[in-house]
Amino acid sequence: MERKTLLTDCPDAQGLIATITNICYKHQLNIIHNREYVDNVTGQFYMRTELEGIFNDHTLLLDLDHALPPGSQRQLISSRRKRVVIMVTKESHCLGDILMKAYDGSLEIDIAAVVGNYDKLQHLTERFDIPFHYVSHEGLSREEHEQAMLKAIQSHQPDYIILAKYMRVLTPDFVAQYPHRIINIHHSFLPAFIGARPYHQAFERGVKIIGATAHFVTNDLDEGPIIGQDVIHVDHSFSAQDMAKAGRDVEKSVLSQAIESVTEDRVFVHGNKTVIL
Amino acid sequence: MERKTLLTDCPDAQGLIATITNICYKHQLNIIHNREYVDNVTGQFYMRTELEGIFNDHTLLLDLDHALPPGSQRQLISSRRKRVVIMVTKESHCLGDILMKAYDGSLEIDIAAVVGNYDKLQHLTERFDIPFHYVSHEGLSREEHEQAMLKAIQSHQPDYIILAKYMRVLTPDFVAQYPHRIINIHHSFLPAFIGARPYHQAFERGVKIIGATAHFVTNDLDEGPIIGQDVIHVDHSFSAQDMAKAGRDVEKSVLSQAIESVTEDRVFVHGNKTVIL
Amino acid sequence: MERKTLLTDCPDAQGLIATITNICYKHQLNIIHNREYVDNVTGQFYMRTELEGIFNDHTLLLDLDHALPPGSQRQLISSRRKRVVIMVTKESHCLGDILMKAYDGSLEIDIAAVVGNYDKLQHLTERFDIPFHYVSHEGLSREEHEQAMLKAIQSHQPDYIILAKYMRVLTPDFVAQYPHRIINIHHSFLPAFIGARPYHQAFERGVKIIGATAHFVTNDLDEGPIIGQDVIHVDHSFSAQDMAKAGRDVEKSVLSQAIESVTEDRVFVHGNKTVIL
Amino acid sequence: MERKTLLTDCPDAQGLIATITNICYKHQLNIIHNREYVDNVTGQFYMRTELEGIFNDHTLLLDLDHALPPGSQRQLISSRRKRVVIMVTKESHCLGDILMKAYDGSLEIDIAAVVGNYDKLQHLTERFDIPFHYVSHEGLSREEHEQAMLKAIQSHQPDYIILAKYMRVLTPDFVAQYPHRIINIHHSFLPAFIGARPYHQAFERGVKIIGATAHFVTNDLDEGPIIGQDVIHVDHSFSAQDMAKAGRDVEKSVLSQAIESVTEDRVFVHGNKTVIL
């Protein structure tokens, strides 16, 4: 008995749930969990079905292809753990949280490597027996640095790249290598405080909440599809530094929740939005 | 085109989703929303399906009865607004919140009447053009009083009874008239602080959170199936009175959320627990 | 025995708490609650002191004026209930919440009147025996309409004006009449989604939280000092209309919390920020 | 210039704030932060004052002793980092969180050692260069085991002991060694689900929230003064194991927040309650 996840993303039509669940039933696959959603604005249908049984992937997908409307996408995913590479700069809290959660099983991922443009987090990473690649940007052009980073990353063949407070903007060339597979944590409740120093912006504005946003990286800075967001309350007594310190916990929880959703194959991307089933 | 909700509650078996959605498809009913859940401990399957189309209730239910396993329960519910009667004593905040939310459409219910063992809330009720029955308990035995309350309630043929801070314990005879149809709000995060004066109990214990619990009323005081719960943070500076005042908002939101879930036919009861789809 | 609140807002200096509390002590006034705050960036000191005793306002303030540094502001406020006028357009939920909370004592304010540019909420207002002024903007210039609104408002001599979903922008002339005395509720977590139709903007961006912000009105649209903010979680299934409906509760709670803070004399304004003690 | 914290805990009397702040002023000490609280039920006054300047501890305390009412307690605490020893059994998440937060400076404590009755967490502890004492309880009486634990702990002279999911009940003899200095995390919102297996109890009851409580350890199991509490929402789909997994985050945040409050000298204990300033 195996477990796999079937993802369907297609134009809405009558009887889709019946069609898909029937095919699964005929294949003697048991449905463990099922969620579906129809976006009434775009007319798109999304379904995520966790299946258990003995799989004949080829005929199952063939049956689906015959039954689903034109323009449908479907994927049958083995529920193996995902491989990730983490990119960092100097701040340790997000990296530390992911390392610890992978260590104790709270996050069911394999961290293939950590890549940093500073070596500050090398020691922490290696305490968890994970390789750290130090790729300094000093003396390199942006493109040269990214090529060096990419080389280090690609050697690990990651499913996803996690920017755990990586403080440099990625070029379109880099992003194009991993479409909807790079997850960033931005330290504000987007779309407020896009760009640099969001806590300073928040302090200047006198807000009473600060937050964090996990999103897929696209070519528009801090404009990619949002995966998760949360906030905490602050008051007048918080300096920008206090906000940054208080914000660590919400950055960590939003990022690790997003990693969990993505690596459990729950996140569909449509245009600039996510559907999470 | 009509909308109805199909509720299925049956022993789990392979192919149930396919079976049910196929029957809906053959009846040319469109699935607007669908949620299902299998309780792996009890082996029970729950499914809530919002359907749109032209209904032949009789043949649809017949088809389901032929297809579902023995011991199945299924209901096809017209999505009309539910009628409720609200029971109160003296505190106005929960009643006021429900009156206002029904008034502005936030709660899609019809309040048939309010019944109180004091007349303190009569004026507020009548401001909203809703009949108020004042049934004093003075000089009556518990049974006599309940019979008088029941008489007032039954004349309105409610789908549900809402105890909006009704401060008397109901007898088994009363409860038996409305099984899983009486919703109470208790002002603590049950099972902590069962019974009288929970805010005083909370104050004595020195807790840092206070809460509220909405539950169906059964014969065991404050032990019925929980529909919803929430808490707010308090600190050392809160007296029991401060807690009671601060708790109003969470009592209101928990109760009105529970009313919404129940009157939208989202709540299944199994043993002493609820499944909310 | 009376209760009054002393507010001090002055340049920071050594010994200010000792100085102020000494003067109170010499006046045989008992300190019921005290909070102070120093803004280390601006070097400003804020203190709010609830006092109980027999007051000689004149000599108390004279003593303070002698002792406090140049440029100090101090106010001794009788703890009487504040008078408010509420401005509305068509949406009932914020008005209804304030009416009910004033009715049951959760908000200790006197609602002198409600003024609307539509008459849709007249009936609701009058159910609570509060006068409603219907001042249509039809056929009037913005200035003419505001003059008519102002006339209706001024006749009630309010301490504060509450914009409970009043959907027109106020002119600088209007705002100048009530500096830091007009409280608005904006249905987004500012500074995100300034201006019109914030829920539509939120829907387009695909955010996972929506929120509300209470702020003092200044001449910069949605840019005034923030009093309070909160958010709720949403997901992909929320249309803009669903967000608007779900947002009602957070709009209500943020606005009523802000009204409570302001009318309890807890809110200091400095530049574009608030200090809430 | 040094920083110290003055804690005052005494019967309430008129002029206490003036008295204490005056003495500080005469000593030319600047007040950085100040919070005070009067418990009107017990008539007790609490004040926490962060001071900056050049301290003459002896005369400062002498001045305070002359001025404060009989039965007063006052402490002048150098703001050095506190030393803690952490006691563990097998679960890593709370320990891992504290290790990481101490590592990155989020918690300003020195972890002198970790002591476990299993050796499962030895490797994790040593990754952070912190000594681990493995003191198995096998073959030892409860008293013998505690004596061995105590011996390991006392050699590190901790200010506080943190039970980071230490799953054995401590005897009165042990507790008496560290009165109000042992902090436990219990995985329920106390007073609900005291004792063993709270997540199983929560599952059986069908609650919609689960929580965690940090408290000082006394001789009454799970009955000591509560320092902090929080909850998260769950639904019908959570097994007891799911609750345990989901509860990890709230256990971590409640425990680390409690450690921060206690080690920053913010927590007063009075009877079975805490005052946190």
The ordered string of helix (H) and strand (E) elements of chain A is: EHEEHEEHEHEHEHEHEEHEE
Helix content of chain A: 25-40%
Multimer state: homotetramer
What CATH calls the topology of the largest domain in chain A is Rossmann fold
Sheet with the most strands: spatial strand order of chain A: 7-6-5-8-9-10-11
Chain-averaged pLDDT of chain A? 96
Cα-based radius of gyration of chain A, to the nearest Å: 21 Å
- Quote the beta fraction of chain A: 25-35%
Number of strands of chain A: 13
> What form of chain A results from the Cα inertia axes?
globular
Could you explain the architecture of this structure?
The structure is a homotetramer of 277-residue chains. Chain A has 277 residues and is α/β, with parallel strands linked by helices. Chain A has 2 domains: 2-78, Alpha-Beta Plaits, CATH 3.30.70.260; 82-276, Formyl transferase, N-terminal domain (Rossmann fold). Chain A contains 8 helices and 13 strands. Chain A has helices at 16-26, 57-67, 93-104, 122-127, 142-154, 172-177, 198-205, 240-263; strands at residues 2-11, 30-39, 44-53, 73-78, 82-88, 109-116, 132-134, 160-163, 182-186, 209-216, 226-233, 267-270, 273-276. Chain A has a 7-stranded mixed beta sheet, sandwiched between helices. A 4-stranded antiparallel beta sheet of chain A has the order 2-3-1-4, covered by helices on one side. In chain A, α4 (122-127) links the parallel β6 (109-116) and β7 (132-134). Chain A starts with a strand and ends with a strand. The mean pLDDT of chain A is 96. The B-D interface holds B 37, 39-41, 189-193, 205-209, 211, 225-231, 233, 235-237, 239, 272-276 and D 37, 39-41, 189-193, 205-209, 211, 225-231, 233, 235-237, 239, 272-276.
